[in-house]
Amino acid sequence: MHPEPDSWTPPPKEAGEPPADVRRILRLFRPYRGRLAVVVLLVAAASLVSVASPFLLREILDTAIPEGRTGLLSLLALGMVLTAVMNSVFGVLQTLISTTVGQRVMHDLRTAVYARLQRMPLAFFTRTRTGEVQSRIANDIGGMQATVTSTATSLVSNLTAVVATVVAMLALDWRLTAVSLLLLPVFVAISRRVGRERKKITTQRQKQMAAMAATVTESLSVSGILLGRTMGRADSLTASFAAESDRLVDLEVRSSMAGRWRMATIGIVMAAMPAVVYWAAGLALRTGGPAISLGTLVAFVSLQQGLFRPAVSLLSTGVQMQTSLALFQRIFEYLDLPVEISERERPVRLDKILGEVRFEGVGFAYDAAQPRATLDGIDIAVPAGASLAVVGPTGSGKTTLSYLVPRLYDVTSGRVTLDGVDVRDLDFDTLARAVGVVSQETYLFHASVAENLRFAKPDASDEEIVAAARAAQIHDHIMSLPDGYDTLVGERGYRFSGGEKQRLAIARTILRDPPVLILDEATSALDTRTEHAVQQAVDALSAGRTTITIAHRLSTVRDADQIAVLDGGRVAERGSHHELLERNGRYASLLRRDARVAPAAPLLPEAG
Length: 608
Fold this sequence. Notes:
The chain is of the alpha/beta class.
């Protein structure tokens, strides 16, 4: 296969396009607008209740206590207690609903990103580090938790509280209100600047977290550990990870400290404002201005303190939202990835699949800028129930050709048909039922043997699983394990040898019983004896169904109905084993090369 670009980069954005559309973020909450309406009502009720307490306090200080009205004093005191109780109850209900909504939004985001990635072509995953994908789902969406669970509610709550408090302050004394709000525009400007700084740093931090996650995923996998230890690079890998972690430390500190002194200055000024109010009230009284009652002054300062808390929180929320935009941008980049392989609007569904496969003028290139296509002008017909073997030197395009049938890639030109229908016109379910692939890259889940086999057919009975394992010549080995079919295979199946894993993969495909089989170097990791046993099982399985075999060992393809020799992405020769031997061309040359590489095997007669 031809090399592809080293890494995935997000698609370019149009000039002037915002990094993360706020309206798009708001649309995430649309399915939950009913519950959010309840939250808004609770927030409004809590804000109204909270501003009532200072007015009750004013009446206590100006009326109930000076006039000795004990009954009124008791009612006003009880009212203050009830406002506190109601405020707490509203707060708990608000937190419950908003947190539930936020978590559901995060669930929707995680699921949407995962579903989008499931639809991406194989080329995307060959260009993208696994740790990068995991980081987007775990770290980026996890980092948005505060925003979607509490920040949005906090914004509404604090904004409502600020508006209600300012109205109440104006009702008490407009002059003191003007003094209190004098510096508010400056504070807003400061918080916006801090938010921009933190957003920039957050983008760098998330990229660094993704890089570190990729390092962990690669170096601490079973393959990574084996490679690191056998190459004596454990200390080097540790030093590399330490360097990645050190860079993350620097970014975390910078993120926490960005604008911290400016925000602290805002806090200091706001904390000093009561003193300014007392000073202004005293100065007005001294200069002959209208007197302000003690109750009004205390109530105003109480409201002012009630204003500063949500105001500071509102400014902090603005900073947090600016920071979160960087995370939303990274998530939206994945959600906006173009799905290159998708179903037609009205796909074709085949109820009965015969299995005829045709390659008609097929061309394929991994990259449009590629100087030479990986495949060019491939014309091969495989009748239903027939077998095709594809051979050729490394890099000739054998595996790529086979991957076009199940649409792991889509052709660049020409078409691949199944029973006369372009595979691009088929629905995914039909294609999945029709084509089974046993790849040279065998993958097993960290689960039991039975669970790995049932991945192909979730409703398979125990008898069907055993029958598939017997056909793949792996049943006896499974039964020799302490837990039989309940044995845990381990991460990526490392408790099994290469040959055992491939036989499990073959059994998994046998269980699916597809009309079309693609065997991509399926026996490449097997010893001669095991290869012979598995080949017998594969031959029995292939009877009556279409089989396309990508072969490394040419001894396994002699009985194929036709053999296609690829060279440089083109069909150099095609015919049966005996026909190609008689031509004494590329195929015969490959056979002689195999004989020289494996002299213990019976040498094939040279044609001509």
